[in-house]
Amino acid sequence: MPSGQDYLTMIGQFAPLVVLIILFYFLLIRPQRKRDKAEREMRNSIEVGDEISTIGGFIGRVVNVKDDVLIIESSSDRTKLKIYRWAIRGKEAPATETVEAPKEADKSDK
């Protein structure tokens, strides 16, 4: 029959492993779950008219939303792209002005 000293030795051997598992949970697993949840909520909150960017680098305005598929307009010539909801990186601030060509280029052509 093991004595009380033996039980303390066994607990002492496993204590660092338990502390390491708890540390991994609070430093790695829990923050990743929070980020995943925030990302999922952002993707589910996308509505028509929102300006978004995709993981492929496209930026556009949402025109239509159906389940997991969105249709976005990507430029002023109204190019439409069909993308999956999981391919959205984030919402962008709406563009308020368009980029114009520099006026110096117009003078050099004349």
Please give a structural write-up.
A hairpin with a 4-residue loop joins strand 1 (51-54) and strand 2 (59-66). This protein is of the alpha+beta class and 110 residues long. The chain contains two helices and five strands, in the order αβββββα. It has helices at residues 4-44, 103-109; strands at residues 51-54, 59-66, 69-73, 80-84, 88-91.
Which properties best describe this structure?
110 residues, alpha+beta, rod-shaped, five-stranded antiparallel sheet, 2 helices
What's the layout of helices and strands?
Blueprint: H1 4-44, E1 51-54, E2 59-66, E3 69-73, E4 80-84, E5 88-91, H2 103-109
Antiparallel strand pairs: 1-2, 1-5, 2-3, 3-4
**Number of contiguous helices:** 2
Mean pLDDT: 86
Percent helix: 40-55%
Query: What portion of residues belong to β-strands?
Result: 15-25%
The Cα radius of gyration reads 27 Å
Oligomeric state, counting identical vs distinct chains: single chain
Extract low-pLDDT stretches: none
- The strands making up the biggest β-sheet line up spatially as 4-3-2-1-5
Rounded to the nearest angstrom, the distance between the terminal CA atoms is 102 Å
Report the sheet with the most strands, covering strand number, pairing sense and barrel closure: 5 strands, antiparallel
Class per helix and strand makeup: alpha+beta
Global outline: rod-shaped
Spell the H/E element sequence: HEEEEEH
Number of strands: 5
